[in-house]
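Ticket 4471: requesting a sanity check on a complex prediction with adenosine-5'-diphosphate. Repro inputs:
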Amino acid sequence: MTDATYKLPPQTPFLRKIQNSLFSSPLNTLLSIATAVFFIFIIVKFVDWAFLSSIWHAEDEPLCKEAGGACWSVIDARHRIIFFGLFPYEEHWRSTVACAVMITTIVASCIPWFWSAAKLSTLWLLGFCTFYLLMHGGLFGLSVITPERWGGLALTIFIFAAVSIIGMPLSIVLALGRRSKLPVIARLFGLFIDFFRSLPLLTILFTAAVITPFVLPGWLQGDKLYRVIVGFAIFFACYQAENIRAGLQAIPSGQDEAGLTLGLKYMQRVTRIQLPQAFRNSLPSIVNQFVITFKETSIVTIVGFFEILASGSAAFGTGKWTVYYIEVYVFIATIYFIFVFSLSRYGAYLERKLRVGHG
Amino acid sequence: MVDQVNSDIPAVTMEQVNKWFDDFHVLKDINLQVADGEKVVVCGPSGSGKSTLIRCICKLEDHQRGTIKVLGTELNDNVANIDEIRREVGMVFQQFNLFPHMTVLENCTLALTLVRKKSRKEAEAIAMQFLEKVRIPEQSAKYPGELSGGQQQRVAIARSLCMNPEILLFDEPTSALDPEMISEVLDVMVALAEEGMTMVCVTHEMGFARRVADRVIFMDQGEIVEQNSPHKFFDNPSNERTKLFLSQILQH
Ligand SMILES: Nc1ncnc2c1ncn2[C@@H]1O[C@H](COP(=O)(O)OP(=O)(O)O)[C@@H](O)[C@H]1O
Ligand SMILES: [Mg+2]
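Returned structure tokens:
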């Protein structure tokens, strides 16, 4: 043997590892086999339902009864309702492109190369303007479509993106305010945060949609959609502020003192020393808040918006399609899954990236 | 060194300084003068107020009574004064306090670019110069978490030096280190002392104190109990409390 062989740690063979973790005792073996059988049963059943015995085309719907599997005909026939809600049929391409623009903007802002205030704000300004132009129209010969008629996936993504982009900076301000050295400021911010956190999101959205028009002057009201987004963003920011504050609190006081003795000003210490470490510290709960928010967008149905879940209900709400709600929900669940799963994978990637070099 | 009569403005002057944490009297009637270029070692039992004393000098703590002047500027609530003083006074901490999310080089260039308004290129050149001085230039691209304690503390010293401070304060810079790393940090501090840096060091490294200190100050229960040249302080202490303390730290 050469010296090099000794430098590697002893390896456990693959089969031995499996044996150790799954079949180490009779009880363990029994549990492993039972679990395996259970999962194989479920997976076989699902694959059969979704792919083998299923019907795919809208015009084949009459065959669904005998087939016994999923009737994807409902998706084939009604997917436009799911994706576009009440958006006028001939303008669906605008909603598709707007969606693509917004998703591209979100994905791009996840890339570290864009992480400077200038690049991010340019990106989001462009993203939102393009989205608005496409959805709302009124320029370049595009017909005007008011927000009441926006719907489906585009609306869900728009609400999520807008809430995040308004809520994130606000949450940072709130978290810093609550940690202010001036007791009055800290109390006021604390009160604000706790007030909005103790209200149900439903109440906030309802107030924003229905009650604020009576209170605010006309020029300040904006469209109902924007009021709802602002209410949602405040709610999001109050929760996110607490996540960020937890991250700030975990930073040893010596970090700020080191910044002080180097002569850094408050904002310099906040942006260069505190926030980067706070984000790293509470990344899991920050990502969690985004995930929750994405899923909670469905609540805007209550104030009369047809986001993707509501559009889905409309998709199986008429005629012969009423029996196929399972297929529609599975389809929508898949769309949610794609977004939420990507979000959490991205969170995991960020965690790995930010951990580089500090254990 | 003690002939301050014809030297410039003293680096630090503390007159009748008193400080309380709530109703705990942590500094009692402190009078201390540090001349330009002087090296002062502060020692004393744990909890005697050594850290608080030097933290007052760079305004990490506020004092409630008496006056502190640094480089002729009084430390009061005038924000401009405080900012100016902090730029001229460097501090090296027991726990290093390097920024964990930045590389060694970024740790050093941060204040150069933000406070001294150097270009990135200039800042990096200055930082590399001081990293070489603490004999660690090859680690510049690493993160603090990848370095040993001794290396981290040397980076922290380089980071302070980048600001070209008039006064450098050390709060037990070797207390958090494994024994075999203490000397690499002390060597750097000795070299700085020999170049004429004004230094106030809280430390129990008696070899270091004997070698570089102009004066050793002994604190107990918030008071300066005794101050003397290292030679007299260690070989012929006058105060009972000093004798007890020295016998305790020299036992092993
Ligand atoms: N921020 C603080 N709040 C309250 N008490 C403190 C604080 N910092 C230090 N003290 C107390 O003041 C005394 C002196 O502390 P310190 O200056 O750190 O002593 P030393 O550095 O000599 O060990 C100790 O009794 C300590 O408990
Ligand atoms: Mg101390």
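Notes from triage: The CA atoms of residues 53 and 182 of chain B lie 24 Å apart. Leaving this open until the requester confirms.
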